[in-house]
Amino acid sequence: MPFRERFLWVCSNRRADDNPRGSCAAKGSEALIEELKRASRTAGQGARVRIMASSCIDHCEHGITAAVMPDGVLLGQLTADDIPALVRGLETAGGVLAESSLAPRQLTAENTSPEALARLRRG
Ligand code: FES
Hints:
Elements lengths: L5 E6 L17 H14 L6 E6 L11 E4 L3 E3 L7 H7 L5 H4 L15 H9 L1
Parallel strand pairs: 1-2
Antiparallel strand pairs: 1-3, 3-4
C-alpha cells in the first residue's frame, strides 16, 4: 500500500429528510465524494491522496463538511464547484487554505460558535 501524504474525509452522513439538523448526504455529499475521487485520480494523486466518506463531522449546519488531514483543517459549505480547488489544495501541506475560494469556508471555533450559528439561521 502506498503511504498517503494527505487525506480528505467528506461527510456522507444521511438523516431523515424531516430531521431539523439536515445532513451532508441530503445536500449531495455522496455524489461530491465520487466526483472528487475521479478528479483526484485524473490529477495523478492516487498514490499520494486518499479521499474517503466519513460519518458526521458534527457541523451539520455547515454541510457539506470535510476534514483535511494531517493539516487539521475543517471545511464547510462545499459544492461540486469546489472540486478543482480541493484537488489543487490537496497537493501540498496547507494547500487547501491557500486556495482563495476555500479559505473562507474553514470552520473554526469562532465561526461555528452559538452566536455564529444564530446569525447563520437568521440569514
Ligand atoms: S451530517 Fe455532515 S457534518 Fe453532520
